[in-house]
Structure formats: C-alpha cells, structure tokens
Amino acid sequence: MPAPPASTDDPPPRRETSRRPGGRSARVRELVHRAVREQLVAEGFDALTVDAVAARSGVHRTTVYRRWRDVGGLLADVLDAAADDAWTPPDTGGLLGDLTALNEEVLAGLTEDPPITMALIAASFRSPDAARALRRFWDDRYRRCAALVGRAAARGELPGAGTDARALLVAATAPVYHQLALLRVPADPALPANAARAATLAATAGAFTLPADGQRVAG
C-alpha cells in the first residue's frame, strides 16, 4: 500500500480538479503538481503558496488561481491524482508474504528521497482540504487491499467467519507508519516482516473476525 496507504465505504466525490484532463491541460496539471511537490519538500508548508507554485511551474498565476483557487485545492488535487493509478496489492501466494510485501512498499514510500510522501502527510495536518484528500487516498488503498484478505480467506488461512479486512490491514501496516512517520526513527529492515507476522498470527487466531451479523463493532 504505497503511501501518497482503506474502508469498504464509498469515498466522497472528488473535487472537480481530480478529473484527468488531456492535451495542454494535462501538461499544465503535471507542471503544477511537480511544482507543488518540489516546493513542499524544499521549503515546507508555510512557503507553499499559489504564487510560489506558479513561479516554480512556469504556469501563469491567473491560471493556477482559476483552476486550483488556493493551497488546499493544490494539495488535494496532487493527492487525488495519486489514486489515479493501476496499483494492486501484492500477491505472493500467502497472507504473511502479502502483508510483508505490502509493508515493504509502505516503508519504501516513507523513506523515499525526496521525502514527498512524508511532506504530504505533514501538510494534511495543516490543510483541511489535504486531510480530506488524504483520507480518500487511504480509503482507496484499503479498498483495493481487501482483495488480499479475500484471497487469504479463500485459501483457508483465516477463520471461517468473515474477517474485518480493514482492521487486519491497519494492524499490519500501523507499526511501519508509527515508527517512521510518528517516531521518525531510522528504518529497520526487519520491521515490515515483523509487523506482518504479528498481524498474521492475530488474524489466524480470530482477532479480526467480524460478529455474526458481519458488521464492524463501533468504537
């Protein structure tokens, strides 16, 4: 679940700017998105302005203001665009292998250079629009990853009753996010496998089994 890493509920409709334009419009969007990422990594959220993005991208400021309106609109569109891909969860043939491979992708995303994923996550704490867009991104990724849990159930790796896919996926990936995004400690190469193993053991023991009515327990 590469991070900028889903629920079974439908996400809110995307902003108008998330539609995939073509031709010159697509080129403008690409230039602006690149400028947003570069500006955010180079100078941080406080220096991210529409004028700064326009200057860095070479796109006229009037065009940027008209299409994206403000910093929130820019960030939301960058994040929404990240979900417009063909990514699918890994398929190694087993739940432990799948979760380990998934965690390795998360770790790679959080330690990439330049650190755009970390910068976007940080920006989501400063911009409500970015926070909503990031939530849509997570929801999309968890939704796609539900297939990973479904395959494990079909192979008989999980208890016969239904498994809460999102709860299992969160449990598997959360240690990676906690260590790298919250504690900011150096990446431990063993972390993806260790976190995946713990989640797999819990899942096979029924820790994420849904109640008889198939609904998640509130809270």
UniProtKB/TrEMBL annotation:
SUPFAM superfamilies, A to Z: Homeodomain-like (SSF46689), Tetracyclin repressor-like, C-terminal domain (SSF48498)
Renumbered residue ranges of the record's region Disordered: 1-27
The keyword DNA-binding belongs to this UniProt entry's keyword annotation: yes
Keywords: DNA-binding, Transcription, Transcription regulation
Portion annotated as DNA-binding: 49-68
Domain HTH tetR-type: 26-86
Origin: domain of life: Bacteria
Coiled coil: none
Any one GO molecular-function label of the UniProt entry: transcription cis-regulatory region binding
Record bears the keyword DNA-binding: yes
PANTHER family noted in UniProt: HTH-TYPE TRANSCRIPTIONAL REGULATOR RUTR, TETR-FAMILY TRANSCRIPTIONAL REGULATOR
Protein's UniProt name: TetR family transcriptional regulator
Record organism: Streptomyces mimosae
